[in-house]
Design goal:
The chain is mainly α. Helix 7 crosses helix 8.
């Protein structure tokens, strides 16, 4: 049994290097961009996860090539040798989301659940949901006041849709355009 584990472990560690060497370039052939297709589509490497097809975990830390054989090796490391579930539940080994992504999801959910109330309170420039919105956007006390005023002043342009994602997008644009709010709301 120990012999099998050692064989699998050595295969996992050696196979990605041995089997995933890039093919030699042909003479006169144009060079391809080094960026992966997903990165080209998104326009930014920030949108890509810090792991490949096998998911996060120790395998993602040891094997960084997002090709089939290396990812099989990462899968073996993640699921047979060092269980991936412990990395996921503890938020280690590349298994935690970026704070920016978490903030965006929180904001989307909050606005979707409270859109009607936020729209009414924004017109008044105050209210419990407005204060909670400021908290979700990471606003300081000064930022909360500035956000209230911004939402009151720009109410028609921010809240002209019943689509919560559109409202959030417009709100973020207005926040970026207002230096006082932008500098005091660090999750916006």
């Amino acid at each position: 049994m120990l012999r099998k584990i050692l064989a699998v472990t050595s295969f996992v560690l050696v196979a990605p290097v041995a089997f995933s060497a890039p093919p030699a370039a042909k003479k006169g052939a144009p060079k391809k961009a080094a960026a992966p297709a997903a990165e080209e589509a998104s326009g930014s490497s920030d949108a890509l996860p810090a792991y490949g097809m096998a998911g996060c975990g120790i395998g993602a830390m040891v094997i960084d090539r997002n090709e089939m054989l290396p990812q099989i090796g990462a899968f073996v490391l993640n699921n047979w040798i060092v269980p991936q579930t412990s990395a996921i539940t503890s938020g280690t080994s590349n298994c935690s989301e970026a704070p920016r992504e978490v903030a965006q999801v929180e904001q989307e959910v909050f606005i979707a659940a409270n859109l009607n109330t936020i729209t009414k309170e924004a017109a008044q420039g105050s209210g419990e949901r407005m204060d909670a919105l400021a908290e979700v956007l990471g606003c300081s006390e000064e930022g909360t006041e500035a956000l209230r005023q911004l939402c009151k002043d720009k109410h028609e342009s921010i809240f002209n849709s019943n689509d919560s994602k559109m409202v959030l997008s417009t709100l973020r644009e207005e926040i970026k355009a207002n230096e006082n709010v932008a500098s005091n709301c660090d999750r916006a």
